[in-house]
Amino acid sequence: MELKVDDLQVDCSDRGKEEEILLVGSRICKLAASGDLIGLKSATDELGIGSAAGPALSVDDLFDSNGFNPLMRSAAIDRRSPSIQGQVECARHLLVTCGADPDASGAKQASGFRALHLAAETGNEEVARLLLAAGADRDAQTVDDCWTPLMLAVIGDQLGVARLLLQCQADAALRDSSGRTAEDWAVRLGRCEVLNVLRRDLCEVCRTDDVAVTFRPCGHRTTCRRCCVLLTVCLSCNRPIEIKEGQLEAASADDEASSTSTEPVPIDQQQLDERFQCRVCMSSSVGVAFGCGHQACRGCAKQLTACHMCRRFVDTRIRLYN
Protein backbone atom coordinates (compact mmCIF):
# COMPACT_ATOMS: atom_id res chain seq x y z
CA MET A 1 0.00 0.00 0.00
CA GLU A 2 1.46 3.35 -1.02
CA LEU A 3 2.12 5.82 1.77
CA LYS A 4 0.50 9.16 1.03
CA VAL A 5 2.21 12.43 1.79
CA ASP A 6 -0.80 13.49 3.88
CA ASP A 7 -0.04 10.61 6.25
CA LEU A 8 3.63 11.49 6.75
CA GLN A 9 3.30 13.65 9.89
CA VAL A 10 5.43 11.66 12.34
CA ASP A 11 6.21 12.08 16.04
CA CYS A 12 9.85 11.03 16.50
CA SER A 13 9.29 10.25 20.18
CA ASP A 14 6.85 7.44 19.34
CA ARG A 15 8.99 4.31 18.99
CA GLY A 16 6.03 2.46 17.55
CA LYS A 17 6.34 4.55 14.40
CA GLU A 18 9.99 3.76 13.59
CA GLU A 19 8.90 1.67 10.62
CA GLU A 20 6.73 4.51 9.39
CA ILE A 21 9.68 6.91 9.71
CA LEU A 22 11.70 4.53 7.53
CA LEU A 23 8.92 4.57 4.93
CA VAL A 24 8.89 8.38 5.02
CA GLY A 25 12.67 8.49 4.63
CA SER A 26 12.61 5.99 1.78
CA ARG A 27 10.01 8.04 -0.08
CA ILE A 28 11.89 11.33 0.34
CA CYS A 29 15.18 9.66 -0.62
CA LYS A 30 13.59 8.16 -3.71
CA LEU A 31 12.31 11.56 -4.83
CA ALA A 32 15.76 13.12 -4.30
CA ALA A 33 17.52 10.30 -6.15
CA SER A 34 15.16 10.49 -9.13
CA GLY A 35 15.57 14.25 -9.48
CA ASP A 36 11.84 14.83 -8.98
CA LEU A 37 12.06 18.39 -7.64
CA ILE A 38 8.29 19.03 -7.77
CA GLY A 39 7.54 15.84 -5.86
CA LEU A 40 10.29 16.55 -3.34
CA LYS A 41 9.03 20.09 -2.71
CA SER A 42 5.50 18.80 -2.26
CA ALA A 43 6.58 16.09 0.19
CA THR A 44 8.81 18.35 2.29
CA ASP A 45 6.13 21.05 2.35
CA GLU A 46 3.56 18.56 3.62
CA LEU A 47 5.97 17.48 6.36
CA GLY A 48 6.62 21.10 7.31
CA ILE A 49 10.37 20.76 6.62
CA GLY A 50 11.82 24.20 6.02
CA SER A 51 8.79 26.00 7.47
CA ALA A 52 9.11 28.86 9.94
CA ALA A 53 7.32 26.85 12.61
CA GLY A 54 9.87 24.07 12.31
CA PRO A 55 9.13 20.42 11.50
CA ALA A 56 8.63 17.58 13.94
CA LEU A 57 11.23 15.73 11.87
CA SER A 58 14.42 17.15 10.34
CA VAL A 59 15.37 16.16 6.82
CA ASP A 60 18.69 14.94 8.28
CA ASP A 61 16.76 12.42 10.40
CA LEU A 62 15.28 10.68 7.37
CA PHE A 63 17.05 7.61 5.97
CA ASP A 64 16.33 4.86 3.48
CA SER A 65 16.99 1.17 4.08
CA ASN A 66 20.68 1.63 3.13
CA GLY A 67 21.19 4.34 5.75
CA PHE A 68 21.42 7.20 3.22
CA ASN A 69 19.71 10.53 3.90
CA PRO A 70 17.98 12.51 1.09
CA LEU A 71 20.98 14.81 0.49
CA MET A 72 23.27 11.80 0.14
CA ARG A 73 20.85 10.25 -2.36
CA SER A 74 20.86 13.39 -4.52
CA ALA A 75 24.67 13.30 -4.52
CA ALA A 76 25.04 9.59 -5.25
CA ILE A 77 24.02 9.87 -8.89
CA ASP A 78 26.49 9.39 -11.72
CA ARG A 79 27.33 12.63 -13.52
CA ARG A 80 26.33 10.99 -16.83
CA SER A 81 22.77 10.35 -15.64
CA PRO A 82 20.16 11.99 -17.92
CA SER A 83 18.39 13.34 -14.80
CA ILE A 84 21.53 14.87 -13.29
CA GLN A 85 20.19 18.43 -13.40
CA GLY A 86 17.15 17.33 -11.43
CA GLN A 87 19.36 15.87 -8.73
CA VAL A 88 21.35 19.10 -8.57
CA GLU A 89 18.17 21.12 -8.03
CA CYS A 90 16.96 18.63 -5.42
CA ALA A 91 20.25 19.02 -3.56
CA ARG A 92 19.89 22.80 -3.74
CA HIS A 93 16.34 22.57 -2.34
CA LEU A 94 17.46 20.32 0.51
CA LEU A 95 20.37 22.61 1.43
CA VAL A 96 18.73 26.01 0.99
CA THR A 97 15.05 25.48 1.74
CA CYS A 98 15.07 22.44 4.02
CA GLY A 99 18.22 23.39 5.91
CA ALA A 100 19.97 20.07 5.37
CA ASP A 101 23.36 19.76 7.06
CA PRO A 102 26.00 19.24 4.31
CA ASP A 103 28.07 17.23 6.79
CA ALA A 104 25.27 15.01 8.07
CA SER A 105 26.40 11.39 7.83
CA GLY A 106 24.12 8.50 7.09
CA ALA A 107 22.76 5.95 9.52
CA LYS A 108 25.07 3.39 11.12
CA GLN A 109 25.07 1.10 8.09
CA ALA A 110 26.33 3.95 5.87
CA SER A 111 29.80 3.66 7.51
CA GLY A 112 30.28 7.39 8.04
CA PHE A 113 29.80 8.36 4.41
CA ARG A 114 28.56 11.89 3.77
CA ALA A 115 27.05 13.54 0.72
CA LEU A 116 30.43 14.92 -0.41
CA HIS A 117 31.96 11.43 -0.33
CA LEU A 118 29.23 10.17 -2.66
CA ALA A 119 29.44 13.19 -4.99
CA ALA A 120 33.19 12.62 -5.26
CA GLU A 121 32.81 8.90 -5.89
CA THR A 122 30.22 9.36 -8.66
CA GLY A 123 31.73 12.50 -10.22
CA ASN A 124 28.70 14.63 -9.39
CA GLU A 125 30.67 17.88 -9.67
CA GLU A 126 27.73 20.30 -9.49
CA VAL A 127 26.39 18.82 -6.27
CA ALA A 128 29.95 18.79 -4.89
CA ARG A 129 30.15 22.54 -5.62
CA LEU A 130 26.90 23.13 -3.75
CA LEU A 131 28.09 21.11 -0.76
CA LEU A 132 31.45 22.89 -0.58
CA ALA A 133 29.74 26.27 -0.89
CA ALA A 134 27.46 25.26 2.00
CA GLY A 135 30.50 24.52 4.18
CA ALA A 136 30.91 20.76 3.79
CA ASP A 137 34.11 19.37 5.33
CA ARG A 138 36.38 18.73 2.34
CA ASP A 139 38.61 16.39 4.40
CA ALA A 140 35.96 14.32 6.22
CA GLN A 141 36.96 10.66 6.56
CA THR A 142 34.70 7.61 6.57
CA VAL A 143 34.49 5.43 9.67
CA ASP A 144 35.95 2.10 8.55
CA ASP A 145 38.34 2.93 5.71
CA CYS A 146 39.11 6.58 6.62
CA TRP A 147 38.57 7.60 3.00
CA THR A 148 38.37 11.31 2.19
CA PRO A 149 36.31 12.77 -0.68
CA LEU A 150 39.57 13.34 -2.58
CA MET A 151 40.57 9.68 -2.22
CA LEU A 152 37.17 8.55 -3.51
CA ALA A 153 37.44 10.94 -6.47
CA VAL A 154 40.83 9.39 -7.29
CA ILE A 155 39.57 5.83 -6.87
CA GLY A 156 36.57 6.59 -9.08
CA ASP A 157 38.78 8.41 -11.64
CA GLN A 158 36.66 11.56 -11.27
CA LEU A 159 39.05 14.22 -12.55
CA GLY A 160 36.61 17.15 -12.31
CA VAL A 161 35.74 16.59 -8.66
CA ALA A 162 39.39 15.91 -7.75
CA ARG A 163 40.41 19.21 -9.31
CA LEU A 164 37.55 21.01 -7.52
CA LEU A 165 38.55 19.58 -4.13
CA LEU A 166 42.17 20.58 -4.64
CA GLN A 167 41.09 24.10 -5.60
CA CYS A 168 39.26 24.22 -2.28
CA GLN A 169 42.43 23.17 -0.42
CA ALA A 170 41.57 19.52 0.26
CA ASP A 171 44.43 17.86 2.14
CA ALA A 172 46.11 15.40 -0.25
CA ALA A 173 48.49 14.22 2.49
CA LEU A 174 45.81 12.51 4.64
CA ARG A 175 46.07 8.74 4.87
CA ASP A 176 43.37 6.07 4.99
CA SER A 177 43.23 3.03 7.28
CA SER A 178 45.71 1.21 5.03
CA GLY A 179 48.19 4.11 5.18
CA ARG A 180 47.60 5.26 1.59
CA THR A 181 47.24 8.86 0.45
CA ALA A 182 45.21 10.06 -2.54
CA GLU A 183 48.42 10.06 -4.60
CA ASP A 184 49.19 6.49 -3.53
CA TRP A 185 45.75 5.42 -4.82
CA ALA A 186 46.32 7.25 -8.10
CA VAL A 187 49.61 5.39 -8.62
CA ARG A 188 48.14 2.04 -7.55
CA LEU A 189 45.14 2.31 -9.89
CA GLY A 190 46.96 3.99 -12.78
CA ARG A 191 44.92 7.21 -12.67
CA CYS A 192 47.39 9.17 -14.78
CA GLU A 193 45.34 12.35 -15.33
CA VAL A 194 44.35 12.61 -11.68
CA LEU A 195 47.93 11.91 -10.65
CA ASN A 196 49.14 14.83 -12.75
CA VAL A 197 46.63 17.11 -11.01
CA LEU A 198 47.69 15.87 -7.57
CA ARG A 199 51.34 16.52 -8.32
CA ARG A 200 50.80 20.01 -9.67
CA ASP A 201 52.01 22.97 -7.67
CA LEU A 202 48.99 25.27 -7.96
CA CYS A 203 48.94 29.05 -7.80
CA GLU A 204 47.84 30.24 -4.35
CA VAL A 205 45.69 33.00 -5.87
CA CYS A 206 43.60 31.33 -8.60
CA ARG A 207 44.19 27.67 -7.58
CA THR A 208 43.85 26.60 -11.20
CA ASP A 209 47.16 27.34 -12.97
CA ASP A 210 50.63 26.06 -12.11
CA VAL A 211 53.11 28.05 -10.06
CA ALA A 212 55.56 29.53 -12.55
CA VAL A 213 57.04 32.72 -11.08
CA THR A 214 59.91 33.24 -8.64
CA PHE A 215 59.91 36.40 -6.55
CA ARG A 216 63.13 38.23 -5.76
CA PRO A 217 64.80 38.83 -3.39
CA CYS A 218 62.87 36.34 -1.20
CA GLY A 219 62.94 33.46 -3.74
CA HIS A 220 59.41 32.20 -2.99
CA ARG A 221 57.26 30.61 -5.72
CA THR A 222 53.54 31.00 -4.98
CA THR A 223 51.69 32.24 -8.10
CA CYS A 224 51.16 31.61 -11.80
CA ARG A 225 52.33 33.98 -14.54
CA ARG A 226 49.01 35.76 -14.78
CA CYS A 227 48.25 36.26 -11.09
CA CYS A 228 51.74 37.50 -10.23
CA VAL A 229 50.87 40.78 -11.99
CA LEU A 230 48.47 41.53 -9.12
CA LEU A 231 51.07 41.26 -6.38
CA THR A 232 53.44 43.83 -4.94
CA VAL A 233 54.45 41.78 -1.87
CA CYS A 234 55.15 38.05 -1.48
CA LEU A 235 52.25 35.97 -0.15
CA SER A 236 54.61 33.81 1.92
CA CYS A 237 56.82 36.35 3.66
CA ASN A 238 55.11 39.70 2.92
CA ARG A 239 58.38 41.17 1.64
CA PRO A 240 58.20 43.70 -1.24
CA ILE A 241 58.72 42.12 -4.66
CA GLU A 242 61.50 43.67 -6.71
CA ILE A 243 61.73 41.12 -9.53
CA LYS A 244 59.23 38.57 -10.87
CA GLU A 245 61.13 35.87 -12.74
CA GLY A 246 58.99 34.04 -15.29
CA GLN A 247 55.95 36.34 -15.46
CA LEU A 248 54.01 36.86 -18.67
CA GLU A 249 55.77 39.35 -20.88
CA ALA A 250 52.60 40.97 -22.14
CA ALA A 251 49.18 39.71 -21.05
CA SER A 252 47.90 43.10 -22.15
CA ALA A 253 49.31 46.53 -22.86
CA ASP A 254 48.59 47.59 -19.30
CA ASP A 255 50.13 44.45 -17.81
CA GLU A 256 53.22 44.87 -19.96
CA ALA A 257 53.67 48.46 -18.88
CA SER A 258 53.29 47.55 -15.21
CA SER A 259 55.46 44.43 -15.36
CA THR A 260 58.38 45.90 -17.34
CA SER A 261 58.61 49.10 -15.38
CA THR A 262 61.69 49.24 -13.17
CA GLU A 263 60.42 52.20 -11.18
CA PRO A 264 58.80 51.41 -7.81
CA VAL A 265 55.06 51.94 -7.66
CA PRO A 266 54.40 55.18 -5.76
CA ILE A 267 52.01 53.74 -3.19
CA ASP A 268 52.14 55.07 0.33
CA GLN A 269 51.02 52.04 2.37
CA GLN A 270 50.74 54.18 5.49
CA GLN A 271 47.88 56.13 3.93
CA LEU A 272 45.83 53.03 3.15
CA ASP A 273 43.36 52.00 5.79
CA GLU A 274 44.19 48.34 6.52
CA ARG A 275 40.55 47.49 7.01
CA PHE A 276 39.88 48.23 3.34
CA GLN A 277 43.12 46.95 1.82
CA CYS A 278 43.02 43.87 -0.43
CA ARG A 279 44.94 41.03 1.24
CA VAL A 280 45.90 39.49 -2.10
CA CYS A 281 47.65 42.32 -3.94
CA MET A 282 48.16 44.48 -0.83
CA SER A 283 47.79 47.63 -2.92
CA SER A 284 44.18 48.15 -3.99
CA SER A 285 41.12 48.77 -1.85
CA VAL A 286 38.57 46.01 -1.43
CA GLY A 287 35.66 46.18 -3.85
CA VAL A 288 34.07 42.71 -3.75
CA ALA A 289 32.74 40.57 -0.90
CA PHE A 290 32.44 36.77 -1.15
CA GLY A 291 29.68 34.63 0.31
CA CYS A 292 31.92 33.73 3.26
CA GLY A 293 32.23 37.45 4.15
CA HIS A 294 35.87 37.95 3.21
CA GLN A 295 36.77 40.67 0.71
CA ALA A 296 39.23 41.44 -2.06
CA CYS A 297 39.71 44.12 -4.68
CA ARG A 298 37.81 43.76 -7.96
CA GLY A 299 40.87 42.75 -9.94
CA CYS A 300 41.87 39.97 -7.55
CA ALA A 301 38.28 38.79 -7.00
CA LYS A 302 37.98 37.94 -10.69
CA GLN A 303 40.94 35.56 -10.40
CA LEU A 304 39.87 33.68 -7.27
CA THR A 305 37.91 30.42 -7.28
CA ALA A 306 38.48 29.81 -3.55
CA CYS A 307 38.60 32.44 -0.82
CA HIS A 308 42.18 33.49 -0.07
CA MET A 309 41.39 33.68 3.66
CA CYS A 310 39.25 30.63 4.50
CA ARG A 311 39.65 28.63 1.25
CA ARG A 312 35.90 28.14 0.85
CA PHE A 313 34.67 27.80 -2.72
CA VAL A 314 33.62 31.20 -4.11
CA ASP A 315 30.03 30.96 -5.33
CA THR A 316 28.96 34.55 -4.64
CA ARG A 317 30.60 37.88 -5.47
CA ILE A 318 28.96 41.06 -4.16
CA ARG A 319 30.21 44.38 -5.47
CA LEU A 320 30.95 46.94 -2.78
CA TYR A 321 30.58 50.70 -3.12
CA ASN A 322 32.20 53.48 -1.13
Automatic annotation (TrEMBL):
What's in the keyword line of the UniProt record?
ANK repeat, Metal-binding, Repeat, Zinc, Zinc-finger
Q: Where are the ANK repeats?
A: 111-143, 145-177
Residues covered by the RING-type domain: 278-311
Q: Which PROSITE patterns match?
A: ANK_REP_REGION, ANK_REPEAT, ZF_RING_2
MF terms from GO for this chain are:
zinc ion binding
SUPFAM superfamilies assigned:
Ankyrin repeat, RING/U-box
Q: Say which domain of life the source belongs to.
A: Eukaryota
Its protein name is: RING-type domain-containing protein
Organism per entry? Macrostomum lignano
